Amino acid sequence: MAMPTVGTAAPALGNWEMEYNGLTLGLGNPVGIISVEGLDLPPIQTGDVQRARDHGEQIGLDAMGGRDITITGDFVAATGFTLAQTSVFVANAFTNYAFGGTTEFPLWFQLPDLPCLASMCRTRKRTVTIDLAYSMGLADYSVSLHATDPRLYAQPKVVSTDRKSVV
Could you report the per-residue pLDDT of 1-58, keeping only the tens digit for each? Predict the structure, then answer.
């Protein structure tokens, strides 16, 4: 199970912002968020078994499966950068092949009235639409991430005492 390590500090995010692999998305950033899917209940792997020669099922253990998260949004040229350069920033943040396809990074997100949470995930698909809007300085994007661990993690808390720190 991969979770943010003890030394992993949550980034300082405002409400409705996300951070993945060094790229901040959301309000007030060149890379905006239109919608996010997959932060609710992940798929359930049911252990129920059909009863032999009878109606119904034998109850089994339900466990959560992996979590799929889809982020859609748009981006514009960042201050001092062209739209193509900003597109490269998005591409670099949401890549997986450079790490052998098995490295998960924390997707940190800040929703109102909640602590900053993270899902450990990796990129499965990234699409940037190149169309008329792109030629006018606005690009639409969609990113699909997969988390093998369905849990959402908060930043670990460290408590200091006179003798040692306790996590």
Answer: 555 554 568 899 999 999 999 999 998 889 999 999 999 999 999 999 999 999 999 9
160 has which bridge partners? 165
Q: At residue 80, what is the residue type?
A: G
Q: What is the pTM of this model?
A: 0.84
Residue pair 26/12 in contact (Cβ under 8 Å)? The answer is: no
Asked if 90 contacts 30 with a C-beta cutoff of 8 angstroms, the reply is no
Amino acid identity of 124? R
Tally of residues, the chain:
167
Q: Tokens for 116?
A: 């900053």
Measured CA distances, 113 to 28, 88, 103, 110, 150 (Å): 19, 33, 30, 9, 21
Dist. CA 118–CA 115, nearest whole Å: 10
User: For the chain, how long is the longest CA-to-CA vector?
Assistant: 71
